[in-house]
Amino acid sequence: MEFRVFGAVEAVADGVRLDLGHARQRSVLAALLVDLDRPVPAERLIDRVWGDKPPLRAEGVLRTYVSRLRRVLGSAIVRRDGGYLLDAEPDDVDLHRFRDLTARARRLDDSGQALELVEQALALCTGDPFAGLGTPWFEAERQAVAAELDAAQAHRVDLALRVGRHTELLAELPLRAAERPWDERLAGQLMLALYRAGRAADALRQYRTTRDALVEHLGTEPGPELRELHRRVLDSDPRLTGSGRRVPQLLPAAPAAFTGRERELAALDVLLDRAPVAVVTGGGGVGKTWLALRWAHGHRDDFPDGRLHVDLRGFDPVAEPLAPDAVVRGFLGALGVPPREVPAEPDAQAALYRDLTADRRLLVVLDNARDTGQVAPLLPGGTSCAVLVTSRHRLTGLVATRGAVPVPVDVLDEPQAADVLARHLGADRVAAEPEAADVLARHGGGLPLALGVLAARAKAAPHVPLAALAEEVREARLDALDTGDLPTSLRAVFSASLRVLGADAVRLFGLLGLVPGPDVGVPAAAALADRPVPLVRRALRELEDAHLVQQHVPGRYRMHDLVRLHARELADDPAALERLCDHYCHVASVAAAMFTPGEPHRRPPVPPLVGPEPEFADHREAARWVDEERACLLAIAVHGQPRHAAHLSRALARYLDTSAQVHDALALHTVAAERTGDGFALTNRGFCLTRLGRPEEALPFLRRAQAVVGDDLALENLVYTQLGITVGGLGRHEEAAEFHARALAAARRGGFRHSVAVAQINCGDQDIRFGRYEQARLRLQESVDIARELGDWGLGAVALSTLGVLHGYLGDKAEADECFEQALKYSSDRVGMLRMGMLFDAAATKHRLYGPEAALPRYREALDFSRRTGYQAEQVRVHTALAGALRELGRAEEAAEHAARAEELRANLR
């Protein structure tokens, strides 16, 4: 529980403000809070709460107030030694926490840490203490606390001046000095802040203002301390700046076209608050130096002792990285050490550098660092300096050993990239050719360096339309981003990052440029490189540390588009892409076998292993792999050999269908069908269209597949199964029954037990439709028996669900309920079409047996599931059924809403 006396007296428990009653009752709590953990006698409490006007039977009234407070605060108020005591921790009362923080600050030697404590203390003071409580005792307490606040504010300003925050103080001190013109301490603080900001004349003017106020109001001259400060300002005493030493100013000019990066700039502000070192990391050309310089120039006044800067050339395309001892010697010179006084030994030079910087408020910018070893000798002494490092490496050693704050920098988003280009080229030129400018901004890939190169080329030829440059960028992005000057050539920038990597990492970098998907996992990268997984992991870590790849989710790596283009140019293994495609086909086969073990005849033969052997504990892990790799698998189908497309289409068809990933399935099967004309791909393409509620579009593909069946019994079974479902959806049920019978015959001839069960379910469904209930029961019972034999309860769930429908038609309520309960139980860990169909069948059967009211919960569950899977055709069916059920119940308005939604979705499907 927390207690507050600044502002209204309050008690807060778990973030909820408690009701403490009227002002007198709150006064009792406030009087106890002041003497926390000390008994306050009743007569003293009465004096504090009522002053010289106590009520009749004051002690009885006091007991009543205490009793009410106990009901709110629990056992916090106790009776002890003839008085009342509030039992709470000092940290839980804002007044006592304020006093503790200010006392601790006065005991600290470190001004920065002390300032942090005082600022925490003052942040607690959100209003006048004991607001609304007006007895003489509270008035006296209020004045005493106000004096403590004034002292804390003055201490805060002294500390802020010591750590170099004079510019920040100038936003508040003039106003306070105007309100209290005879306050000599405040006047001295303002004079010092003005002087350190380079405004000596204003400091002298402030002295005269204060002297005039003292003479006029108090009839006295300023005291000796203020007069001494005045004299030192007149004499330009170097000690007033915090040191009499040289103030280095080595920062390069601020970037002119800088934009955005608010999040990163805010992250860098922690330099002033808690951490002495920040490490700005990111890939080449991403704008790390721009960011560092922008922040450094924006905080010049926070570092009165100067700013050091060096380009360490850690990733220079030509020059070697600078040695730390050479940099230290340069810094010593900037700090005013004559060359003859620089020690001969590097260790002694570094020690002198640390000594000179130990008590300064100095900013050190170490740009383009290669590694922690290059940076560590350049860190200043003490904790009052701030260090800003930029590097393409993460410098995890610096983060781990020196408490550095990592600040990652990614590419610009599209609006920021457009803004950078407009700042370079001018708004008028961009407005004249907005489409071309948009192309340039997008093809710059969000890299400030690339955008700068494009802008430089455009400015060098102002008579050439931007459209011409945009067309060149479309045709050859990296060539268009080459100025001929190594520091601004993207190829040279990327190559410089590779120079510091090992041979395995460099080789893998080139091969990763061949990956057709959006990213790659470790096993696939191992297959691509034809190397063991541990070696590939090390190489990927190297590339990630150099910001050449990004591990955007654990275990998966991607490249920036422009980096990928450069990597592809370096790839030197023609067989690498085929290895990757073969790897995906093998793993997809293994995953599919785990998901549908009873259908090997529908899947292609498992190809030879390429890369590491997949290790799936169960079908759930296999399904997760397919979901993670879905975009990559589709890319393999497009960019691999035609055989890869056909293989993936056939291997993954069942999983993609049962998990309701219909649109991805359609994309995969379409690619495979168009590239190969494969019968399985044609069938699966057609069936996806049926699933999407477009059976008329599906039939031509299914007929084409029917024409190439030949003696392939597995394909024959699949084609007739899908034809039966498709024509059944068109209301042609006799034709559907014939197709399902032919599918059953093919399955029996081929010995495909799983497909026999599926065909019997489909035939049984048609038998139910035609009233052949006993024949349907026999078919469905055979399906249940086969599912039990195969141990496939996904299949068993479908059979049981259809049995439930049969019992519903027979009026067998208990049997129908039992079948659906078991079916939904067995399908609980499955997603997609199987469960959606079961939920709808269960709802429709409930409707038939128990009426519309009983069916509504199941219908809504089916609707929710179909929405979560994004399957609109099923949503149409459920909305239509819901509309009918609601009309039966007389809820016409709700029914109309569902009917309208069904029609809207049906139009979308068309």
Automatic annotation (TrEMBL):
Protein name: DNA-binding SARP family transcriptional activator
UniProt keyword terms in alphabetical order: DNA-binding, TPR repeat, Transcription, Transcription regulation
GO terms of molecular function: DNA binding
Biological process per Gene Ontology, one example term: phosphorelay signal transduction system
TPR repeat copies, ranges: 797-830
Entries under SMART domains matching the protein: BTAD (SM01043), TPR (SM00028), Trans_reg_C (SM00862)
OmpR/PhoB-type domain ranges (all copies): 1-88
Pfam families reported in the protein's UniProt record: BTAD (PF03704), TPR_12 (PF13424), Trans_reg_C (PF00486)
DNA-binding annotation, residue ranges on this chain: 1-88
Record's keyword annotation contains 4Fe-4S: no
